[in-house]
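fyi for ur records
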Amino acid sequence: MKTILIIGAGPLQIPGYLAARELGLRIVGIDRNPEAPGLRLANVAHAVDTRDANGAIEVARAEHVDGVMTLCTDFPVRTVAAVAQALGLSGPDSDTALRATHKGHMRSAFQRGGASIPRFRRVADADSARRALEHVGLPAILKPSASSGSRGVFKVRDQNQCAVAFEYASAIDPEGEILVEEFVEGPEVSVEGISFRGKHHFIAITDKVTTGDPHWVELGHTQPSALPAETQEQICVCAARGLDALGIKDSASHVEIKVGPRGPVLIEIGARLGGDFISTELTARSTGVSMPRAAIQLAIGEKPDVERQWSRGSAIRYIEAAPGRVVLIRGVEEAKAVPGVAIVDVYPAVGEEVRPVLSSLDRVGHVIAEGATREAAVAAAERAKAVITIETTHG
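which gave:
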């Protein structure tokens, strides 16, 4: 029996534990929180921080693991690489992991590799940010290089906003670097992929819905993409060049792309499965491919199963509520009864606080739906979302 080490055990990691069980693997899980839900599904659990590479390597050696992986967050990716390198396992090397988890290093790698990217500058202070805007042009995006989940993202429309935007972005990582990049007008998509021995297999292209200015937090995802076939081919070429530029050869990937006036341009690449339930729920429902299963097969050195089984529609829509203290939640059971709806989840309980949506951490719930077409899936998700009410008060 082979042993898989899963770095992280939060809710987004659970599909990995379930897939490993289905494959009949012995599971070793680590998480800083000994009560993390995924650890209850592991054969062996260790309370180790997901960013503690030395601690993870010690566990991996003691447990004689055959593979290491994480699912949907950037934080453990460097730890995965460190374990893989130390034990000679399948996975990204440490340099690739660094490039895939630091937006500044990522942009520079894209530039060296000749990939299509927005104009950008890497800066350390507000004065440099103002000068960078002269290079990248307006509007522009400021965001911290060492962050994820839309945290610290701010769209700047004129020079007068620069100081506020820099302060907002740097609050996430006060000593860190800020990326100033050209804002690309056009639809945003992600590409869900599995790379095996340097060959990139793209499973799905996902259309996105966001809050728009100024923070661009994602509020929905839909598969398959509605973009023309020719554009989707260009997107895949763009994604492949980005993966090659980062050095990704044996890894799951989540590639974010904007389709602008110059065609597709790379925004970011994660060397792991996509979050927001894209890789763990939507892709399986729209294509029949289990990306957690494929990622585990990849991690233990087996050829991943990436063959599409069907073409259907799937969608997730995030529930919205006004900021304040929750006083009433209704419509959840009605939402679950909508034909095509698979999952309804409301995060806060009555009495808890709802914050303004400044990052993905501030969203209050989601609905996942599926259907024979993308239109059917979207209609079901939107209908279910509409019947849910979360009332709040500032009192």
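The first helix runs from residue 14 to 22. thats all i got for now
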